[in-house]
């Protein structure tokens, strides 16, 4: 594939959805894949490993909690021990919380901040340390969101964490440039995943409208005329992970079908 390169990519939250699509696409690009997810996702991890192997690349599964830096370090060590030096780290793991601000419980907010901010911070930090130890250039890619540019109702805490990812991506790009490490993030819009099904359920329950109507209203705002698919996002990550993006860093790129402009 034009612009593809061999290497080893670690993807967190790779067991399903956008993470799985990224793993499969980077395997098609010539990358061997470290499939990282939570311990309870073993079945999903096995399925992604099989999908990567079907594409002619090597894969290994690792598990851990991205909000624990020791887990992130261990996942990097286990994966690279099997597959070789790291070339790409995709901090894709994240959780969503669909509640109005008045209803968000402290423990739920803490978990949101732990996974979506601390998890990305530790991923960036420890991936950069690995690249520096290897003495190699590297690419770090994070998961932001359309709500890093314009928040959605019932997604206040999620929106706040994704604004943080956008800022962290810029700061990390500044600090890591001297080590030949680029840092960028991708900002999906309305993607056909379980998270948006939950958003529709909560919004329609709140407003007393039929199920599916909130999601359809979002589609009306998409210039491309449809919700995004995980593969749409994976195509952007393919570019960010490949050599064609070598002169690009500190950017958060919208991939939403034309909802927001920046």
Helix and strand run: EHEHEHEHEHEHHHE
By helix and strand content, what is the structural category? alpha/beta
How much of the sequence lies in strands comes to: 5-15%
Question: How far apart lie the N and C ends?
Answer: 30 Å
- Summarize the amount of helix as a percent range: 40-55%
Number of helices: 8
How much is the radius of gyration in Å?
18 Å
- Note poorly predicted spans: none
Strand order of the largest sheet: 3-2-1-4-5-6-7
Counting copies of identical and different chains, the oligomeric state is single chain
- Biggest sheet statistics: 7 strands, parallel
* Bulk shape: globular
Mean pLDDT: 94
Number of strands: 7
What does this structure look like?
With 262 residues, the protein is α/β, with parallel strands linked by helices. It contains 8 helices and 7 strands, in the order E-H-E-H-E-H-E-H-E-H-E-H-H-H-E. Helix 1 runs parallel beside helix 2, helix 1 (17-28) packs across helix 8 (230-241) and helix 3 packs parallel to helix 4. Strands 3-2-1-4-5-6-7 form a 7-stranded parallel sheet, sandwiched between helices. Helix content is 47%, strand content 15%.
């Amino acid at each position: 594939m034009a612009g593809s390169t061999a290497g080893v990519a670690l993807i967190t939250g790779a067991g399903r959805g956008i993470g799985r699509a990224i793993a499969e696409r980077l395997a098609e690009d010539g990358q061997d894949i470290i499939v990282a997810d939570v311990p309870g996702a073993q079945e999903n991890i096995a399925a992604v490993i099989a999908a990567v192997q079907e594409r002619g690349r090597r894969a290994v599964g690792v598990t851990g909690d991205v909000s624990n830096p020791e887990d992130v370090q261990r996942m990097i060590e286990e994966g690279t021990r099997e597959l070789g030096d790291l070339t790409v780290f995709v901090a894709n793991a994240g959780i969503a919380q669909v509640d109005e601000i008045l209803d968000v419980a402290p423990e739920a907010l803490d978990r949101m901040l732990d996974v979506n901010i601390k998890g990305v911070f530790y991923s960036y930090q420890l991936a950069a340390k690995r690249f520096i130890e290897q003495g190699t250039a590297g690419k770090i890619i994070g998961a932001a969101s359309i709500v890093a540019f314009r928040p959605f109702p019932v997604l206040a805490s999620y929106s706040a964490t994704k604004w943080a990812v956008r800022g962290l991506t810029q700061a990390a790009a500044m600090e890591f440039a001297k080590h030949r490490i680029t840092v960028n993030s991708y900002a999906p819009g309305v993607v056909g995943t379980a998270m948006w099904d939950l958003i529709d359920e909560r919004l329609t329950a709140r407003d007393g409208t039929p199920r599916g109507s909130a999601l359809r209203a979002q589609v009306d705002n998409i210039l491309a005329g449809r919700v995004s698919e995980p593969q749409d996002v994976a195509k952007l990550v393919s570019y960010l992970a490949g050599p064609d993006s070598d002169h690009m860093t500190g950017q958060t790129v919208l991939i939403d079908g034309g909802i927001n402009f920046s």
